Fold:
Amino acid sequence: MAKPMTADQFVKALRAEGLHVVEHPGWRTNNRNHKGAWGPVNGVVIHHTAGRNSKSLVFNGTSTLPGPLCHSHLAKDGTVTMIGNGRANHAGTFALNAFNAMLNEWSNHPYPDRAEPIDANARTYGIEVENLGDGEDYYPHVQYDAAVRWAAAICRFHGWTADSVIGHKEGTRRKIDPRGPVGSSNGPQWDMDQFRRDVQKRLDGKASDGGKVEAPKESAGSGSDGSKPASSSTPARYRVTINGLEYGYGAKGDHVTKVGKALVKRGFGRHYKVGPGPTWSDADTRAYAAWQRSLGYTGKDADGVPGETSLKKLLGSLPGKRASKPKKVPPFPGRHYFRPGATNTYVTQLGKALVKRGYGRFYKVGPGPRWTDADRQAVRAFQLDQGWRGSDADGYPGPETWRRLMS
Structure:
């Protein structure tokens, strides 16, 4: 429980966390304080916009739901725009068990009860992350990283742990956000347990006053001209060779264009005036440096010249290497293996796949060979995240649920 941040404190905390913050005109007085309480605050709620170009919408709201609809808007390129300062119509009502998990910073965030007695608009900060919410539109790494930093900034200011962060769908049964793959269209679905782990890693590893950052190290290729990385004020002008291909200033080839297009797709296109193209330029270096920083690299490890680790994360695989064969999906054994009282190895196999996909929060022990309500709840959560409803999201796997989990 804490007193809400002032507008100046909010902006300062976000910028100290390394975020690019833009102040929407009028945001400092944009609130719903005349309609209800604002504070004390207890947590952070993550939303998706369910649309594109939503800044005006979240600032003004609609005739039935007046703005602000959040405190901050997060664009695909990682830009944070301040929208509201005070009570906002972002969360609505929450289930008591969900609110208590956030309030008491429980490591397990339960499936929300049906009753919703808590005025979450009065007690939480909210961010709207630009995304269609259709389960296919993905969150670029730079956007996801900015969301982590945004949540961490608030938790750091108030002295909270990451378990004070909750997804909208974790507070109420009425919502499905945040939803969608992270990093690429084939990436893992946004998982709030993983998101909280990422927030906590940032809280544990970086001080907001500019203290030393414990960053990962790049595994670089071999320098092709023997020059050293340039200073941070000048784009790096050396090259490396990775898997037989050159990267860095002056490197040429289709693989250079591929890197540039991947950087644009992930939200770093602002560094290009023209391009990207087949010749590595300073624009490529600046864009790649921004990508490296989004992964947590600092100093010479974020000079804009690729290392093997960051390049593989950007492209999914290293050009020149033979693509791995697609994983063979085991055949669906049949619905009767997944019913109350059933005990078999397929239940264990299904449970392990659910845990790997980020649905382990439903299991207190296991998963194991006996079908339990934990398995059903985990399957149902997965089905809902596919956009299925009604009988298609009953918590019992069919052939398509099995195929998607096992692929």
Notes: Residues 216 and 297 are 6 Å apart (CA to CA). The mean pLDDT is 87.
